[in-house]
Structure formats: C-alpha cells, structure tokens
Amino acid sequence: MSKKPLMKTLVLSDSHVKVQQMAAIAELVRPDFVMHLGDHAFDLEQLAELLKLRLPTTICTGVTGNDFYDVSEQPERQLLTLCGNKFFLIHGHQYGVKRSLDSIIYAAQECEADILLFGHTHVPHLSKIDDLTILNPGAANLGYYAVIEIDDNYKLTTKLYQAK
User: Fold this and answer.
1) Where residue 141 sits, what CATH number does that domain have?
2) What pTM, to 2 d.p., does this model score?
C-alpha cells in the first residue's frame, strides 16, 4: 500500500474558460493546493469558488497570464515555500518560453527555486537541471495537468497527466 503524501499539489495552466474541466480534475486528484499559471486568472477565481463547496480544505493560488482578459488581483509571479521546497510560479510569456527556456531557468535559479512552474506554450514539459525541476503542465483546456507530491522527507515527485 502506498503512503499518503505529506502534500499534494495540482498544477494547471492555460485553462481558457474551462473551469468545470479543471474542477473535475481537482475532484479526481483531491489536492491540498491548486496552482494556476495563468491565462484566464478569472478561471482560478471561479475554480476557487467551486472548490470551496466541493473540496473545502483545498487552497488555490496562481498568477496572471498574457491574455487580454487577465485583469485580476493575481500577481504576475509568485515565490512560495511549501514543505521546504521553493516554488517559482509564472506564466512564462515574460521570458519568451516559446523560443527558449534559458532566461526563465536563469530567473528561477536566481531566486533559488527548487521547482519552476510555467505555462504559455500549452505543451507539457518536465525536466531537471541540477537541483531545479522545470514543469509546464500543458494546457488545462486540452485536459493536461500535473501533480506534485511531497513526501515526509520533503522530496518532490512530479507527474504529467492528460484527462480522458
């Protein structure tokens, strides 16, 4: 029998108004945290309202994207420390991630992040450079998402998924 993780985080990006789809994924994953990486910050606000009823202990946070409709109180970037791991959240358009990941990786390393979370490309990506985990969950409006689990030794396990 597998041991329950200390913390489970659902990572979503580029939802583009597919709030019900994100809610269904959240109900399947049952995360402690939801991190939304932009393009349609209002989607995160609507998702948080839905999850208050369906998963009341789940905490939602996120950043804005580059979409015309991304006028909200969400920040452009966030640096969060959870269970001893530093998360750098950003949409990614600010660093030209469709051309290269070099500058966004440098930014994450500069703030000593353990995990870089970004979106914008709509393409799932998971890699590791030195001690930095680099994750783009892909576009939530296409069913892509990622789950990060942290065990009681504060070790990260990250997986990409696509909802059927």
Assistant:
1) 3.60.21.10
2) 0.94
| Cα angle 13, 5, 64; round to 5 | 20
Q: How many other C-beta atoms lie within 10 A of the C-beta of residue 132?
A: 17
Please state, in angstroms and rounded to a whole number, the distance separating the CA atoms of residues 147 and 64: 20
Residue 141 inside a domain? The answer is yes
- Beta carbons of 134 and 123 less than 8 angstroms apart: no
**Local confidence pLDDT in tens for the 164 residues of the chain:** 567 889 999 999 999 889 999 999 999 999 999 999 988 768 888 999 999 999 999 999 999 888 755 556 788 899 999 999 999 999 999 999 999 999 999 999 999 999 999 999 999 999 999 999 999 999 999 999 999 999 999 999 999 999 97
Number of domains, the chain: 1
| Residue 1 covered by a domain | no
Domain assignment of residue 2, yes or no? no
